[in-house]
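seq as requested:
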Amino acid sequence: MKNNKIVVALGRNAFGDTFPEQHERVKTAAKAIADLVEAKFEIIITHSNGPQIGNIQTAMAEFSRLDTSQTVAPMSVCNAMSQGYIGYDLQNAIRSELLNRGIYKPVATIITQVRVDPFDPAFHNPTKVIGRKMTRDEAELEEKKGNYVTEEDGSYRRIIASPKPVDIYEIDSVKALSDAGHIVIAAGGGGIPVLDQRTTLKGASAIIEKDYTAAKLADMLDASMLLLLTDHDYLVINKGEENERELKEISIQEACDLVDENKFKSLTKQPKIEAAINFVKSGKDRTAVITNLTKAKEGAYGKIGTILKSEA
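struct tokens:
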């Protein structure tokens, strides 16, 4: 039986920066998902949560500042909040789009925890900027709490670790719902990073890069395709130079070479190509496609996008 299972990873362009923007933009994402459902693909969705998690963290920090009886919300809690409210908008938009096409398929969001390694070197080299801009005095207070801070355009912001995903705890729930014909939204924002402490899962002060978790999710589900949707048709290297090039179908080796040559300088592009490589190399008969959100169906059929396939 042909494997039609696709993990769709939605980038931040699917959501915008504010509540009203998100409410409107998810309608475009819903159309893309509905196109894939009509084409008889089994769909599991994961998504970005930036800047939503930053907005939540900033709001909760301000709340605790105004009411000293309240504590600052841990990053794991902020991530859980972002999964819930993005899932709420997204699942309702998908449900409406499908019903408007005469299709009934249940859509469910799973609040997803992802194990990280406490010894991951990322905890000593944080890279994810989070939260509001601070003065130097406020930044010093953050550092006294043991948090990392970086200077940015004359002000300061907190930065936190971005460890690699090791395991997805709710994977059996995702499989069960998917096998029952549901559309599942899972591991939003890379999942809630947790540390395994015997029978307890402890939230980690981190944000997992969502593209790496998308690859892990697709691998654990043994999907045939990882579809990474963004705001451009292809990945581009040497942009603005004479040898500028759109990457179409490339081999795993070429993709690895381009990573080694630092051709993907963007903090958003490199994780995508590395996630594509990781997924395709981890199994047989797999394809990863990086393309435009509005052209998801064409990408799934290999008509557009930066494409990597398993090698014979």
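The chain has nine helices and 16 strands.
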